[in-house]
Amino acid sequence: MTDRPPELTQRGSAEYAVLDPLRDPGLFEGVTWRRIFAYMVDLVVIAGLLGLYYIAVALLTVATFGLVTPLLFAIAAALPIAYHTLTIGGPSSATLGMRLFRLQVSVWNGGKPGYLQALLHTAVFYVTTGFTVGLILLWALFNNRRRCLHDILCGMIVHRRQAKSG
Fold first, then answer.
1. What is the pLDDT of residue 6?
2. For the chain, where are the E strands, in sequence order?
């Protein structure tokens, strides 16, 4: 990938290109199914993390005679949000499930999302899917970049990971 498309723009010291399914359709092939399976993997990871956390909660409940238990349960509710925010906003811009299925989250112009944008993306995902019982995810079937509504609202794109050049 030594040839750079003319749409590249400079932003700081890194180069970013607008991700276009017409110019590079391979980045968007099979993304919908990969996202579904990646999220299933993420649910298993989150369930495992919550299982370990609840063991710690049980031990701390006994040790503190139940005084901190309400706080610990409130923290448990934030664990899935923290998982998605830290992995999407991190260096690989993907959750563990996304990495397994070779997906990556980018901002609309090809750059990596920051932690604040990843938090917003996660919060909008949970709010919109919660209010619509997941039906809002069907939105991805009707656009060429396979973007869900929470991707569009947060200026993000999920695409197949590009092979490293050089």
1. 41
2. 9-11, 14-16, 103-107, 156-160
